[in-house]
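User: Fold this; tokens only.

Assistant: Input:
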Amino acid sequence: MHTPELYEIRIASHLSESTRARFEGLSVRLDPRGETVLRGALDQAALHGTLIVIRDLGLKLISVHLVGDSEHQRQQSGRRP
């Protein structure tokens, strides 16, 4: 099993509330530049599932950025940097 890592996914345009609901478990931020930013800890299977949802909804993917796993792991274990 793969360990979840923290990802930030950018999508062109602001998503409607009903579309944002499709990304359960991820934080959703509407960027002032007109993009939607999804962020959360995903393992490889969940990341691919999220990308499939983006494709199936016909959304324009701007970027997928691995933010890292150390921050997420510290939060889960209660450790500080």
